[in-house]
């Protein structure tokens, strides 16, 4: 039998229907404190959170994210920010000027740390019995979120997570994944295994949707194609520029 942590990870699912039961202040503080222990690159702590409990504001976030009911019905919404404003202040205290927010490496660092933070928040929440869903849809209109939160330059709302008590009558099934052998590749990248895994997973996911009566949901190949043949959030780059971010390599 897996230990409780592994079991929780194996049973992870995105919760899109909440019961309306409250998230206690004590539990929320535990979740935030536990997540804050997540690692950040060079211990720069270039991540900040905006924790939203006001229902009117959560509904505004839902609209910014494209009108998502799963966001609007959450008891808490946590926005994960890349925060090079904090580090810029630290560098200024040393009498120097920060450059990392102008570099491609800076954006990668911020994105990696934001992803780690998302996992930490969701694991902590799940351990206390709460449901969550990762929301990348806030990048549908990042400028609106920047203005809603009054974000300073060198910060950017990368993604967020809902938080609430799952509706026990509407729990989704655990979604399957690509075959392990096409995901965890031994020693070298194997495109044949990756391609075979795509074909297998396309069939598996089709059966998974059909078993739930969701016959109109696209297969893996079609869903991925629908998203990745276009730039589905085409204002992200401009919003990053307005926030002062660059995407260059600076040679010392």
TrEMBL record:
Cross-referenced InterPro entries, in alphabetical order? Flavin_OxRdtase_Frp (IPR016446), Nitroreductase (IPR029479), Nitroreductase-like (IPR000415)
Per UniProt, residues of the Nitroreductase domain are 11-164
UniProt KW Membrane keyword: no
Alphabetized UniProt keyword annotations:
Flavoprotein, FMN, NADP, Oxidoreductase
What Gene Ontology molecular-function terms does this entry list? oxidoreductase activity
Pfam families this protein is in? Nitroreductase
> Record's family?
Belongs to the flavin oxidoreductase frp family.
Supply the name of the protein.
NADPH-dependent oxidoreductase
Organism, scientific name: Craterilacuibacter sinensis
Lineage of origin:
Bacteria, Pseudomonadati, Pseudomonadota, Betaproteobacteria, Neisseriales
